[in-house]
């Protein structure tokens, strides 16, 4: 049985032999495809500001993929690809990274385990995830809110009135 996954990708470091962050994202998408993950759609790559103390800007993208892997196996595959791009998990949050791939949603709805939560717990508050995600799967429904990615992105990015 095959499953669809919405993945968010980010990089803010050059990788030796690959290039700058945008090249890292393109190469990571190809690396997933080489590992029998069917690429259905990919978003344009966007630039975004850093979270936390990191100083470098990020390149971000999203991709819609299909595979027979269940979430734990998909997470293991993602870790393998991140490692191939010199990703090292030091336990520090918000640090610069060569490659970060997150499972945002999957066609099975909710998944909760010690190592993985789907939907990604913070994707609704991150424009750098929702913008690219909306471009590849605008009608995908968040199983927790019942809103589509298009609606979630519109809510997050709509102009807010200035306080009086």
How do the helices and strands line up, and which of them pair or pack?
Blueprint lengths: L2 E9 L9 H14 L3 E5 L3 E3 L9 E10 L3 H14 L15 E7 L4 E2 L4 E2 L8 H10 L12 H9 L7
Antiparallel strand pairs: 1-4, 1-5, 2-4, 3-4, 6-7
Task: Characterise the protein shown here.
The chain has 164 residues and is an alpha+beta fold. Helix content is 29%, strand content 23%. Strands 1, 2, 3, 4 and 5 form a five-stranded antiparallel β-sheet that branches. A two-stranded antiparallel sheet has the order 6-7. Strand 6 and strand 7 form a beta hairpin. Helix 3 runs antiparallel to helix 4. The longest helix has 14 residues. The protein is globular and about 50 Å long. It starts with a strand and ends in a 7-residue tail after the last helix. The mean pLDDT is 89.
Terminus-to-terminus distance: 55 Å
- What does the radius of gyration come to? 16 Å
Number of strands: 7
Largest sheet: 5 strands, antiparallel
The shape is: globular
Outline the low-pLDDT stretches: none
Mean pLDDT: 89
- SSE series: EHEEEHEEEHH
Number of helices: 4
Helical proportion?
25-40%
Structural class of the secondary structure composition? alpha+beta
């Amino acid at each position: 049985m095959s499953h669809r996954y919405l993945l968010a990708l980010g990089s803010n470091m050059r990788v030796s032999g690959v290039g700058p962050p945008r090249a890292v994202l393109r190469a990571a998408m190809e690396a997933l495809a080489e590992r029998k993950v069917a690429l259905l759609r990919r978003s344009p790559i966007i630039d975004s500001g850093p979270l936390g103390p990191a100083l470098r800007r990020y390149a971000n993208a999203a991709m819609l993929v299909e595979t027979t892997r269940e979430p734990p196996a998909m997470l293991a595959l993602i870790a393998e690809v991140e490692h191939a791009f010199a990703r090292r998990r030091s336990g520090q949050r918000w640090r610069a990274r060569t490659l970060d791939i997150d499972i945002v949603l999957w066609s099975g709805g909710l998944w909760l385990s010690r190592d993985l939560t789907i939907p990604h717990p913070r994707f609704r508050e991150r424009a750098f995830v929702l913008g690219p995600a909306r471009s590849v799967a605008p009608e995908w429904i968040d199983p927790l809110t019942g809103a589509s990615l298009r609606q979630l992105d519109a809510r997050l990015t709509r102009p807010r009135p200035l306080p009086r």
